[in-house]
Design a protein that fits this description.
By secondary structure, the chain is an all-alpha fold. It has helices at about 20-50, 55-85, 110-130, 140-160, 175-195, 210-230, 240-265, 270-285, 295-320, 325-345, 355-390, 395-400, 405-410, and strands at about 105, 110. The protein has a single domain, classed as Ammonium transporter fold (Orthogonal Bundle). Strand 1 (about 105) and strand 2 form a beta hairpin.
């Protein structure tokens, strides 16, 4: 597998000398907390604001539930599959067997590395929920989340980051462009196709509950993303600092790219558009955050924002799949761009001698293709299993019409 300086080494990085660093450990504790904030707070508010008023709590509950279930499954078996011993799939660390408070992963405790990576698994399946909300059973989704992390997320993470070689194509994915975003986007899209459209999709105007919540959620995601990307350096060093900076730059350019094309197409600049552009820029820079410089981040983020807009505004209408909150278009489609751009925009300090862009692009395309095919096929199987275990995956017509907040949770987002 090609290695491009320390900046693009993946989270399976083994340091030359395993000695605990208190500074690196302190930073990774903070980074883990930042990524944790992204799911039950940032994504929950972002998705909750985008859905309709009758389904706000159900939508937010999926992010909360995903984090809880994802954490449990990760420590039971997910981490072992992703980062255990072995080639095709890891093993040997179920229930974190053999890991103690003194066990190190590089210069940080391995238990902290387990926690950090677990937040990635949880947000991945939570992202996928955005494609299926307003019509999938809450119980089905909870079972789906647990099975998906084990059967889909953990294997893909192992091939990219866990040290396996058979299905590792030498991809550069510093913080999860394919492992998290493309993987989750494809999964959500597949389940949306299986579930079918919402009953009133295309018949009535489907208006977001609250642009205010969307904006707040995007801000929290942006904040947490510093831990997501800079934390993937696994150290408090210059690479983490660079990743922190380019993450901020790309998110800002994502906002700019989205609202510029939105203005040209609709003659309006919406807050929801700006917030979505920020997320698109963040997704785009994620795989390149450890290797791109500021110049690259500007282009990656700008194109990410533009591409996200056209995915949501144009391509979605062509495919006619009811991807409720555009998880595929913002995470999947933009994730593909980010992976490709990673090979194109490498800062001079991160590039090895005789770097071959064509060869690296081929590696990126192989990894993208594997992720799409594997995620699509196994996600479909996982959904059908979850559906069978919960007596069908789609809510009944009455629940869908009245809203899942009231019929499933017995609550309302606003009690006025």
């Amino acid at each position: 597998m090609k290695r491009y300086f320390i900046s693009v080494l993946l989270p399976s990085l083994v340091f030359a000398e395993d000695v605990l660093s208190s500074g690196n450990t302190a930073w990774m504790l903070v980074a883990t907390a930042l990524v944790m904030l992204m799911t039950p707070a940032g994504l929950a508010l972002f998705y909750g604001g985008l859905t309709r008023s009758k389904n706000v709590l159900n939508t937010m509950g999926m992010s909360l539930g995903a984090y809880a279930v994802g954490t449990l499954v990760w420590v039971l078996v997910g981490y072992s599959i992703a980062f255990g011993d072995g080639d095709i799939l890891g093993s040997g660390k179920m229930l974190l067997s053999g890991i103690t408070s003194d066990t190190l992963k590089g210069t940080i405790p391995e238990l902290l590395f387990v926690a950090f990576q677990g937040t990635f698994a949880a947000i991945a399946v939570a992202i996928a929920s955005g494609s299926m909300i307003e019509r999938v059973k809450f119980s089905t989704y909870m079972v789906f989340a647990a099975l998906w992390i084990v059967a889909v997320y953990a294997p893909v993470a192992h091939w990219a980051w866990g040290g396996g070689t058979t299905l590792n194509f030498g991809e550069m994915d510093f913080a999860g462009g394919t492992v998290v975003h493309l993987n989750a986007g494809v999964a959500g899209f597949v389940v949306a196709m299986i579930l079918g459209r919402r009953k009133d999709y295309g018949k009535v105007a489907i208006k977001p509950f609250s642009p205010v919540l969307v904006s707040l959620g995007a801000a929290l995601l942006w904040f947490g993303w510093f831990g997501f990307n800079a934390g993937s350096a696994l150290a408090a060093d210059g690479i983490a600092s660079s990743a922190f900076l380019v993450t901020n730059v790309a998110a800002s350019l994502g906002v700019i790219g989205w609202i510029i094309v939105e203005w040209f197409v609709y003659k309006k600049v919406t807050i929801i558009g700006g917030a979505s552009g920020a997320v698109a820029g963040l997704v785009a820079i994620t795989p390149a955050s450890g290797s791109a410089g500021v110049e690259g981040a500007i282009i990656i983020g700008l194109v990410g924002g533009v591409l996200g807009f056209y995915g949501v505004a144009k391509l979605k209408n062509i495919f006619k799949v009811d991807d409720s909150l555009d998880a595929f278009w913002i995470h999947g489609l933009v994730g593909i761009w980010g992976s490709i751009a990673t090979a194109m925009f490498i800062a001079p300090y991160a590039m090895i001698e005789n770097y071959n862009m064509a060869s690296q692009l081929l590696s990126q395309f192989k990894a993208i293709s594997l992720t799409i095919v594997y995620s699509a096929v196994v996600t479909a199987i996982v959904y059908y299993v979850a559906s069978a275990l919960t007596g069908g995956g789609r809510v009944n017509d009455e629940s869908e019409s009245r809203g899942l907040d009231e019929t499933v949770h017995g609550e309302k987002a606003l009690n006025l």
